[in-house]
């Protein structure tokens, strides 16, 4: 059940850009919204028990243009304002929202406050917009407490009546109002008449104070497998001199072609110190390297099983991992273990 304290809560809304920040002008076209005027479009934001402050990226960005630089800006903004606000809402385009949520979850260690990302499929200035409900619910969640502490104390995504762990989120549809899903973990909360929280799933960090890991190494690549794939493509990718990490998107429960040449390429990459992680290209499920002989090839090459991590989580976790200067063994253990709730269970390396 939802609970609110009587004292006034402070929420910082960070507008990065995206569909939610558009309104319809007199000609029927869409133009960017000045988010300093958001209260004019969503007057329900004004509540006697909370204060809302808004800051915006200048200029606002389409989420296709959001990357490591913007992730760092967001993390630094949260760090700078952390002591002054009870919760944070990040308004973001949907296309790369899951990447940003995943990245922030690994950059922000020791969270004791909610970081809620949301966006919309339709601009907030249109009559059928989903942006209004998404924004209002995200702010409500960012101010919800029980026993004088926030119910949510992690990076999460609110979209289409559901709250998902940030590093479990995935954009599954370009059309549906429920564009964002969590394929391998149930929702943390569902908004109906009340917001019902699944508190048994809430993540709690063992650290007591916020620490921001600012170093990200984006010298990584993503390689989906497909039948008939030329090995020359894989070989050329792994020959990139600066490559430090590789996420393989494999068949089913982590399978790859039983090809000695492929094994040779991946073994050579692993021997050069490239961290290679295996996730399934299926929409739901996990890598099980013990199940089939076709998965044993990757295990024998030193590939790290990624369990049920999403591709978004695997890539951003790898960037965070490589940015911390771990030894090779430390990096393997970091990628295989559950760091921020991104894995249902430990991914055994054997």
Gap from first CA to last CA: 42 Å
Portion of residues in beta strands equals 15-25%
Helix fraction, binned, reads: 25-40%
Broad structural category: alpha/beta
Indicate the mean pLDDT: 91
CATH superfamily of the largest domain: L-asparaginase, N-terminal domain
- Strand line-up across the major sheet: 4-1-5-7-10-11-14-15
Shape: globular
Q: Unreliable segments (pLDDT under 50, ≥5 consecutive)?
A: 1-5, 346-350
Question: What is the total tally of β strands?
Answer: 20
Radius of gyration: 21 Å
For the record, the count of structural domains works out to 2
Question: Remind me, CATH topology of the largest domain?
Answer: Rossmann fold
The CATH architecture term of the largest domain is 3-Layer(aba) Sandwich
Query: Strand-and-helix sequence, N→C?
Result: EEEHEHEHEEHEEEEEEEEEEHEHEHEHH
CATH hierarchy, class of the largest domain: Alpha Beta
- Mind describing the biggest β-sheet? 8 strands, mixed
Please characterize this protein's 3D structure:
This protein is α/β, with parallel strands linked by helices and 350 residues long. It has two domains: 9-212, 3-Layer(aba) Sandwich (Rossmann fold); 220-336, Rossmann fold (3-Layer(aba) Sandwich). Helix content is 26%, strand content 21%. The chain has nine helices and 20 strands. It has helices at 38-41, 68-81, 97-107, 131-142, 231-238, 260-271, 293-300, 311-323, 328-336; strands at 9-15, 22-24, 30-32, 50-56, 87-91, 108-109, 115-118, 145-146, 149-150, 155-159, 162-165, 170-171, 180-181, 189-191, 195-197, 211-212, 220-224, 245-250, 275-280, 304-305. The strands form six sheets. An eight-stranded mixed β-sheet has the order 4-1-5-7-10-11-14-15. A hairpin with an 8-residue loop joins strand 12 (170-171) and strand 13 (180-181). Helix 3 (97-107) runs parallel beside helix 8 and helix 5 packs parallel to helix 6. The longest helix is centred in the N-terminal third of the chain and has 14 residues, at 68-81.
């Amino acid at each position: 059940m939802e609970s609110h304290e009587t004292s006034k809560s402070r929420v910082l809304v960070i507008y990065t850009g995206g569909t939610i920040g558009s309104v319809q002008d007199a000609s029927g076209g869409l133009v960017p919204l000045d988010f300093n005027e958001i209260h004019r479009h969503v007057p329900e934001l004004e509540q006697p028990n909370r204060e809302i402050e808004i800051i915006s990226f200048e200029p606002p960005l389409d989420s296709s243009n959001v990357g490591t630089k913007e992730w760092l800006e967001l993390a630094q903004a949260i760090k700078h304002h952390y002591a002054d606000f009870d919760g944070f809402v990040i308004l973001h385009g949907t296309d790369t929202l899951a990447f940003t949520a995943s990245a922030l979850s690994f950059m922000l260690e020791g969270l004791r406050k909610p970081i809620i990302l949301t966006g919309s499929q339709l601009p907030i200035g249109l009559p059928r917009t989903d942006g209004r409900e998404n924004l209002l619910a995200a702010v409500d969640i960012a101010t919800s407490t029980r026993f004088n502490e926030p119910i949510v104390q992690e990076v999460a995504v609110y979209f289409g009546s559901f709250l998902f762990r940030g590093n479990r989120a995935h954009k599954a549809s370009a059309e549906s109002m429920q564009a964002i899903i969590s394929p391998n973990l149930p929702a943390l909360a569902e908004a109906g008449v009340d917001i019902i929280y699944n508190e048994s799933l809430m993540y709690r960090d063992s650290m007591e104070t916020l620490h921001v890991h600012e170093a990200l190494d984006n010298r990584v690549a993503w390689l989906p497998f497909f039948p008939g794939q030329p090995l020359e493509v894989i070989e050329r990718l792994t020959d990139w001199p600066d490559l430090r990490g590789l996420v393989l998107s494999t068949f089913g429960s982590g399978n790859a072609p039983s090809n000695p040449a492929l094994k040779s390429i991946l073994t050579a990459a692993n021997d050069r110190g490239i961290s290679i992680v295996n996730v399934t290209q299926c929409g739901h499920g996990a890598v099980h390297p013990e199940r089939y002989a076709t998965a044993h090839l990757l295990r024998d090459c030193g590939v790290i099983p990624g369990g049920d991590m999403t591709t978004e989580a695997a890539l951003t976790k790898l960037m965070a991992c490589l940015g911390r200067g771990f030894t090779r063994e430390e990096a393997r253990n970091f990628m295989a273990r559950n760091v921020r709730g991104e894995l249902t269970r430990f991914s055994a390396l054997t």
